[in-house]
What does this fold into?
Amino acid sequence: MSQPPGTGPRIDVRGAVDLSNLGRPAAPAPGGEGQPASGAVVDVTEATFADVVQQSLEVPVVLSLWAARDAASSQVTALLVRVVGELGGRVLLGRVDVERSPQVAQAISAQAGSTVVAVVRGQAVPLPPLDQATIEQVRAVLDQVLEMAVANGVTGTVAGVSPGAPAEEPEEPPLPPLHQEAYEAIDRGDLDAAVDAYRRALTENPRDDMARAGLAQVELLRRTDGVDAAAARSAAAAAPTDVEAQLVVADLDLLAGAVEDAFARLVDTVRATAGADRETARVRLVELFAVVGDTDPRVMAARRALASALY
It folds into this structure.
């Protein structure tokens, strides 16, 4: 993250105007207990997007995409609110509700390829995935953002925010027992046990979206464990109609962060196959959607491409 932001994409604020959701009540923003944001945390809309990006000339900006029905994105944004609150105005956090401001979300994701992005001098720098991050890991990421900002001459603070002592951190609520069991299994490298715990959580509550996402992520890790990436890619290139070979490479692409490549490979596989092979490719693509998150703009675009391939 030490690269100068001039090498990254510039956030384009043109055309980010969509008034279709203005009449819909907003869901409570993560970390705000339903109260309007202020100080170092702001809620970004089409109307304020340009101004927030402009502030990145003076203070590093972090933009976090979230949706009320995506628990993982809400949790990440709430953690960012807490950590930014400790920094005395040295970072401005912009929360973007993807359901109320879809064009802002699309502009960020399309140009930066990430759901959490740093902006310095108008340049977007994707941040690493924070879905499973602890608060200490989030602090470390924002420390890197501050180092990058200083290296590029951005050392201001958010107006009106005092650098006083950080507030005492509220105690994090405990995880549901089966989620905790899954996390502990992952920590000790027992992916089979983690899968079992998440499956039992879904049996108890089929609408447990966090368990569904966790299961998809652990299944991905389990499928790719020990795979020879070079051999897998060579096999897929040699046999473009071999569905299993394409599935393996799509998994590897997603694990490496090449989300669009993984989705495109499986959409192409759906188009090129029929019957049981087509269904196998479709099911795996839907599983990968769960890994990335249903509200991610890349997932939304791939869903449209899948529908076109099927019908």
In short: Residues 275-292 form the longest helix (18 residues). The chain has two domains: 5-151, 177-310.
